[in-house]
Amino acid sequence: MRQVIAGLFQSLDGVVQAPGGPQEDESGGFAFGGWGVPHFDEVLIGFMGELFQGPFDLLLGRRTYEIFAGHWPKIENDPFADALNTAAKYVLTSSTEPLAWNNSHRLADFDALATLKETEGPRLIVQGSSTIYPQLLSRRLVDRLFLITMPVVLGSGKRALPGAAPTACKLVDHRVSESGVIIAVYEPKGDVATGSFAMEG
Fold first, then answer.
1. Which of 57, 117, 121, 183 is the least crowded, having the fewest Cβ atoms under 10 Å away?
2. Residue 122 is part of a domain; what is its CATH number?
3. What is this structure's pTM?
4. Does residue 13 lie within any of the structural domains?
């Protein structure tokens, strides 16, 4: 069975929109595209390097796929670009438009992803594609979730995990960089437990 490793870059107020560049996602008049880039330091770069060590395939939503497909095939003499270009790309999309990036495959729905997850093969790493996370979590398809929180408040923009089913998580790794980036890695733990601080009497 394959593992699904999903991760998001978020601001302190939970915004995940367009961390990687000004034109990444300007919907809703979002004016802070690229807000994550200044916070990439040695700790974060090291973590991302570990994440992509060894065999992996990519799991992407259609919008992120188009962004990646327009960028990474043009990059030469870069080991990370070579790894992305070589990896299989599985794209969750209802569109039947051709997927031009090398080694790309369409997944029509989350049932198709669940079937793929049952097969033998490399880890499936989710990048970007924040709109597919609620369904991934609700269907319990995520084996590990990493949240990379940057020391910035954005005030508006698309937030992480809207509409996801309530799920408890267990912290399995964490790192804090000198620049204030917090990396937290979780595994789903089951149902959400509740309690009360009310005094009995």
1. 121
2. 3.40.430.10
3. 0.89
4. yes
Segment 16-66, tens digit of pLDDT: 999 988 988 899 999 999 999 999 999 999 999 999 999 999 999 998 999
C-alpha distance from residue 44 to each of 4, 57, 60, 103 (Å): 20, 21, 21, 28
Other CB atoms closer than 10 Å to residue 100's CB: what's the count?
Answer: 10
Strands 182-190 and 168-176: antiparallel
- Tokens 């700790």 belong to 43
Let me know if residue 38 belongs to a domain. yes
Put residue 132 in one of left, alpha, beta given phi > 0 → left and psi -120 to 50 → alpha: alpha
Neighbours of 96 (CB within 10 A): 8
Other C-beta atoms within 10 Å of 89: how many?
A: 21
**Cα(129)–Cα(62) distance, integer angstroms:** 8
Residue 151 located in a structural domain: yes
Q: Distance from CA of residue 144 to its chain's centroid?
A: 10
**For residue 155, what are the β-bridge partners?**
none
Domain residues for the domain of 42 are 4-190
- C-alpha span between 6 and 85 (Å, rounded): 19
- Residue 201 within any structural domain of the chain: no
Q: To which H or E segment does residue 7 belong? A: strand 4-10
Closest C-alpha among 167, 144, 190, 104 to residue 4: 144
